[in-house]
Amino acid sequence: TRNEAVIEVAGDGATAHIAGAALGDGEDGPFHHDDTVFIDHGAVGCESRQVFKKVLKHGATGVFQGKILVRPGAQKTDGYQISQSLLLDDDSQFLAKPELEIYADDVKCSHGSTTGAIDETALFYLRSRGVPEADAKALLILSFLADAIAEIEDEDLAGDVVARLEDWLARRRG
User: Fold this and answer.
1) pLDDT of residue 95
2) Do residues 54 and 62 lie in contact, with contact meaning Cβ atoms separated by under 8 Å?
3) Helices (H), strands (E): how many in the chain?
């Protein structure tokens, strides 16, 4: 799957928020999920926020390419970009290319990317309190994805997304 978004933040004080979450399991065949986002700030006092999370297993591959461009006249821009992946095995991979291109001097912009595994200390904590391992892992995965889900303003849609995530996790326990 490949998703591409080009967003022009052109009006003074305009905002743009975009988020994504992907659950990739290569067990039934190759899984490749690629998100490319370009946000172009061209006006004063604009804000953008990008939050992308991927959970990958069984050789799945995730890619994130994000760019924030701040043009010369776009003073007071506030741009935020984060891409994070949770690898559930050693065969999966996440490739990230976060970029900032800034031509204004009065801005607040940040970007970053992280890749990691399930926190063994958190898993131990839940297990020591009687939570079965599969349930503990599911809770940690859902909490990892919470930032991306929180970007969904429509409560019904957010609830549907959580239900789909829980279903995906339930089918892969064991």
Assistant:
1) 97
2) yes
3) 3, 8
Provide the residue count of the chain.
174
Nearest to 102 by CA among 39, 51, 49, 52: 39
Q: Distance between CA atoms of 31 and 53, rounded to whole angstroms?
A: 15
What are the pLDDT digits (tens) for 33-50?
A: 999 999 999 999 999 999
Average pLDDT of 91-98? Answer: 97
- pLDDT, mean over the chain: 94
Residue type, 101: E
- Cβ neighbours for 77, distance < 8 A, ≥ 6 positions apart: 41, 45, 46, 47, 48, 70, 104, 107, 108, 109
Residue at token pair 């946000």 = 39
| Res. 169: pLDDT tops 70 | yes
Provide the whole-model pTM: 0.90
Calculate mean pLDDT across residues 167-174: 76
The single residue listed with the structure tokens 């019904």 is 156
SS3 content of the chain, % helix, strand, coil (to 5): 25, 45, 30
Q: How far apart are CA 12 and CA 43, in angstroms?
A: 5
Task: State the Cα–Cα distance between residues 77 and 81, nearest whole angstrom.
Answer: 13
